[in-house]
Write a structure and sequence with these properties.
The chain is an alpha/beta fold. The protein has 10 helices and 9 strands.
Length: about 290
């Protein structure tokens, strides 16, 4: 499957968010980024992204759709979103998944191939997550047509009415967090706390900065941290942030690999430091002037 052209994404971003006191849940932030943008960022190769719900600003270009009637439930929202897609496979995602990753999305797309009608994530407790899923579009359209024939409208019907007519592959949650959704303020607080944990905070921060600046640049964190250490120790403490800035600028301007540039700058910092150690640590091969 070609990830760039063979799938669209439908993100369900409606609902009343009653447990949030009516707050606009998809616009609430985790790590300084709206939940909706975090979900959209997990499917960067979708040919078309359709957001079903009230129009909101988003970091990427999307199509907006509304369920009929507004607030008619997830099945009505899915039906509305599907009308704006053309790809043979569609991702169907809720807008409150702070830890959904592109790797999880790729796994769902791969598992959704025929003869299955689609693939959905299973959380750690074994529960199906139909709003973290990839479906083949034609079986999905047939299932929705059947529902409309039987009930007149999908509004107000549960998602299980749709799933009963589909053959689906279950995909275990590879990170044990991709299916985590923010249903309450407590969930939102837990998500905000998790991104600040050791082991997560740097990756989360770098991802947020790249999104804010609109850049797509691979960042080798270990290489840059090693460089910062060498520059601070061998040159001067302020050299660390300034040097890493210059590495990023050069990588973006020249399209070069960050690690390659960081290695070169680190070697320069080490040569600089070696000169300061004096003749005993110097590799200078120059001759001493005659007295």
């Amino acid at each position: 499957m070609n990830d760039h052209t063979d799938h669209d994404a439908i993100v369900l971003a409606g609902g009343a968010a009653r447990r949030f006191g009516g707050a606009d849940k998809p616009a609430l932030s985790v790590g300084g980024r709206p939940l909706l943008d975090r979900v959209l960022a997990a499917c960067p190769n979708a040919a078309r992204a359709v957001v079903v719900g009230p129009a909101r600003p988003t970091a990427r270009t999307v199509l907006h759709a509304r369920e009929d009637p507004p607030g008619g439930g997830p099945l009505a929202a899915l039906d509305a979103g599907l009308r704006h897609t053309t790809a043979p496979t569609v991702l169907v995602l809720s807008a409150d998944l702070p830890f959904l990753t592109a790797a999880t999305v790729r796994g769902l797309l791969a598992a959704a191939a025929a003869p299955a009608d689609g693939a959905l994530l299973q959380d750690a407790s074994g529960r199906d997550q139909p709003l973290v899923a990839a479906y083949r579009a034609e079986p999905l359209r047939r299932a929705l047509a059947r529902i409309r024939a039987e009930h007149g409208t999908p509004a107000g019907l549960p998602l299980r009415a749709l799933l009963a007519g589909l053959t689906l592959v279950r995909v275990p949650d590879p990170t044990a967090t991709a299916s985590f959704d923010c249903d309450t303020w407590e969930d939102l607080g837990a998500a905000r706390a998790r991104i600040r944990e050791h082991g997560h905070v740097l990756d989360e921060w770098i991802t947020a900065v790249k999104a804010e600046l609109g850049i797509d640049l691979d960042v080798d964190v270990a290489a840059l941290l090693d460089l910062a250490r060498d520059a601070a120790h061998g040159v001067a403490r302020p050299a660390a942030p300034l040097t890493t800035f210059l590495i990023g600028y050069a990588a973006g301007q020249q399209g070069r690999d960050v690690k390659e540039l960081a290695d070169r700058a680190a070697a320069l910092a080490n040569r600089w430091a070696a000169e300061a150690e004096g003749p005993a640590g110097s590799s200078d091969t120059g001759t001493k002037p005659a007295e």
